[in-house]
Each structure stands twice: as structure tokens, then as C-alpha cells.
């Protein structure tokens, strides 16, 4: 248990030691400045979208007109004769009404509309009547399909044209019910107000006529079926009645009265037979008792014997007749019951047949038209809505572009972000100068000594000279991560500014591969840095004094093949020692750090290194890589320079702007 508690406490301590990355709060003001900076982009995309939407709405889109016919379901439409089974209409529940709405858009009814209005000749519904433009998407798709299939266009069959026309008509028709009512509406939308009304009205009339036709067909079917059944029942009834007559005639079957008479007669005969037998028995007994001997039959005895024999014969005959009459009567009653049942069915079907025949021509539709469609009203295109949506989409597109461009931007907007990325101070922020060409730099600095750019150079100079009170920097190296970040501009401007203090300044062009000094200075010595290092020339014969710069210039001709080898030579260190003895400040314009090793070698001979970073252009990873290359050699980096700043955009995006003294201020 103690071990478990100990392990748990250790886990808690480990969890508490985990550092959670801090999520920066959303800077709404910065976001607003970013959007405000891109306002012209947003306005441009908005106006372009409005122009495209307006062109579509006013020039391309065809006007559409909608006309509506209204129908009502007849819930109290009772037939004149009750024959619901034969011609019953549809129900009035919602499902039945929805079914009728679906029937309204069925191919059966729409085909009748197409035939009646000859829509097969209307280009709006039969698209085959309109030639396809050669430069349209449809034409391109057709050519591509034909190229892939290896088949040419085939003229459509009439059935295919009819089917496509019906489909286009169905797309132009909508049908729906009004909620909680038995009313539904038919709406047709076409490019003509009158055509829309005619289509809606024609469909409504065809729908009602189709209901009557369906009922008439049901009536005719019922009449045919009932006629056949009545005829069959009539034959059956006649056969049963014939069988009854035959039974009565041939079998001499009578009704119940005859059977009752035979029964009574049979009973009476039985009684007379019993009396005769009793009388005969009494007469015979009296003769035997008187004489004591059997006597000869007397005349009475003979008469009774004859009577008994006759009665017995007659009774047997009656019994046979009674049995025959009973069996025949049962058969007769069964035949009569069957005949009666057949007669009832026959009379019922005969009555229904008569009713159905009477109903012919009296069928009414289960719906009626409440109002015919008037000429259609304009419904599309909704031009103002299209313009509003286009403006919204254009604005959103512009906003998305601005935010995406800001999110994908890899450069630095201000000094604070540059410092956070490199852990180095920003000792200067130089605005972009309004120069048409680079050769105007010195003229601009002379003519605009109070400009923001000139003041920014003075601020840079002050930052460099006041960095170490014990020692002024003598050798100043200017470099950057990649070409085009303004390092040469800083070198020239700083040389001009330092020479203005009455100090001797040498500006050295150490970028032999892509020298930019020829843009700024018209004069330069034919002998350059390589000849001095090699001992082929002296410093006096290699430097040129520029009157506008009021400083000496030492160039590096492009004939220098291996600058890195020269800067690595011991002779170069000797040369730098000589320069320190002759000049107060030596400003070296070095190549960028990342492409070549020259700047790293030169940094070993410099007192301070100033590192130019182009505003909003140089990616952060390149700046960090270049700075790290110098830090690895313990180069004396004085700080970074945020250069080529667009003062207007900087104010819009970061809230910072250059004041009248060339100082960067931040507005709240």
C-alpha cells in the first residue's frame, strides 16, 4: 500500500512537471488591422463578383414567369346512383391528395400537354431545336465523349426527343397542397408569362378530363362484366326452372296437399284393414266355441278375407306412392330453393347493370378548378438577390484571400516578432525609400535629410555607436540571409551618415559575386581587393574617394574567383589591421550568409555585425538559419535591421507607423 502511494505521488510530481504550451489570446485589433489592410483586395473581389453576378442576371439569365392554377378536391361529390364499387373516386386523406399531386406530374398527363400544346416544337422544352455553341461546355463534353468512344453524333430518336421534352416540362411544373386544406396548386414556370398560364391551365383541364375518362372506362368495364354475369345467371335460372317443370311433369310430383291427402288415405286404409282383421278374428272365434269343432268358413268370413286382401294391396300401393311423392317433393323443394337464390342474384345484378348503364355519361371529376392561371408573374432571376449574394461571396472570397495570405505569410511584420524568433535585438527599422533606381540613394539622403528614412539611419548609427561605451565599433559588417534584403543600402547610408560626423570612413565591397556598388557609384578603381591581398597593389592605388559619399570606396572586381579563400588567408588579417590604422570606421558590405561562406569568414574580423531582414518577405526559418550560422562562429552580432518597410501597410497591419522623427510608434 505504501509503495502504491509512493508511485502515485511520483506520477503526480511528473505530471506537474509537464509544461503546457501557452495559447496566445486572439488579438482582435491585429485581426481587424489585417482585414483593414486588405480592404482594397476585399473591395476588388466584391466588385468583380458583383460585376459577374450583374452580367449573369441582366445579360445571360433568361427571365422566368410563374403562373398558378388552383384546384379543390370535391369531398361531397356523391353520385346520382349508388355504385361506389364501380366508379369510386379517390379518398380525401392526405396520402390520397399527395398521390394526386404526383399524378399531376406523371408522364401520362405531361405527354398529353406536350401533344396538345405542341411543345415538341418549342425550343424552351425541346433543346434539340437549339444549336449547341461550339465553345460551350456541352459541345466540349460531346466532342470529348465522341473522341473517347470513337463514335460520331447520332441524331436522337423521336421517342428520345419526346422523353426529353416531357422531362423538361416536368422540371418547369411544380404541384403542391395548401396545408390543412383540400386545395392543391399547379404552377408552371417558363420564359413567357402567357405560356406559363396556358401550360398550367392545360394541365389542370387534362387532369380533370383524365379523371372523367378513368371513371368512364371503369363504368364501361363494370357494364361489360355485369352484362356477362347477368346473362350467365339468366341461363342458370332458366335451367333450374326447366328442371322443376320436368320433375313435376315426368315424376308427377305434386305439392304438399297431395302428399297430405295420400298420407290421410294411407292412415284410413290402415284403420279399415285393422277393423277387418279384428272382425274376421271375432267371427272365426265364435264359430269354433259353439260347436267345439272347426267350422267351414261362412259367407261373412269369406267376404272379410277378401276385403282384407284388397285393403292390404291398396295400402301397399299407397305406401309406394307416398314414398315416391316424398322423395320427389324433397328434390323439387331443393330445385326451387336453388332457383330462388339464382333469381335473387340475377335480379340484383340486373338492377346493378341497369344502374350502371344509367350512370353512363354522368361521371364527374373528383376535383374542380377554383381559379385558372393568369399570365405569369416575374419570378426569376431575382436580380437584387443575385447581386447581394454575389457581393457577399465576393467579400467572403476577398476576406478569405486576405486572411489566408496573412496566415501563410512567413516574414516578419514588426520588431517584436523578429526579436521573439531570434532572441536578438532589433537596432534599426528602415522604411522603404521612394527611389526609382538604386543610384538615387545618396541624392535622396542629401536632399531629404529630415525624412523618415534618414532619421532611421541616424537611429541605427546611434544604436551602433552607443552599444559599447568603452569602445566604438571600427569594423562594421553588413549582411543578410539572402540577396535583396537591403544590406548594401544600409552599408552605403551608414557610411554617408558616419562621414557626416567628420570621421574617416572606408566602404568595402566584399560581395564580388553580385556587387551592387556600380549602381551607386560611377567611379571605382580598376584594381580591387584581390590585388591588394595578393600584394600586387597598394591601398592608395585601389581606393576611390566619392565626393557625394565623402568617404573612400574599395571594390571587389568580379574577376575574383575564390573570395572565401582570400578572406581565409592570413594576408587578409594583415590587410584589416592596416585598415584599422588608417580609418575610423570600415564598413564591409558582405554577401548573404546562407548562399556562400564569405560573411561568416569576414565576421571574424568585424567588431559588430548588422543583419538585415526584409520586412514581411524573408521567411523566418531562413533568418533563424542565417543568424545561427553566425552565432556558431561567435560573431559579434550587434542586432537586426528590419528593412524595406512599407510604412502605410505597417500601420494598417501592426498599428506601428513612422513619426516625423523617423521613429516607430505603436498606436493603441
Brief write-up:
The chain is built from 24 helices and 15 strands. The protein is an alpha/beta fold and 668 residues long. A hairpin with a 4-residue loop joins strand 9 and strand 10 (551-554).
Question: Overview of this structure, please?
Answer:
By secondary structure, this protein is of the alpha/beta class. The chain is built from 24 helices and 15 strands. The chain has helices at residues 2-17, 28-37, 39-60, 84-87, 94-104, 107-117, 137-149, 158-171, 193-250, 256-291, 299-359, 383-408, 415-422, 441-447, 452-465, 487-499, 517-520, 529-533, 539-542, 563-568, 570-582, 598-602, 620-632, 647-654, and strands at 64-73, 173-177, 183-190, 367-371, 377-380, 426-431, 475-480, 505-509, 544-546, 551-554, 585-589, 608-614, 637-645, 656-658, 664-666. Helix 6 crosses helix 9 (193-250). 29% of the residues are buried.
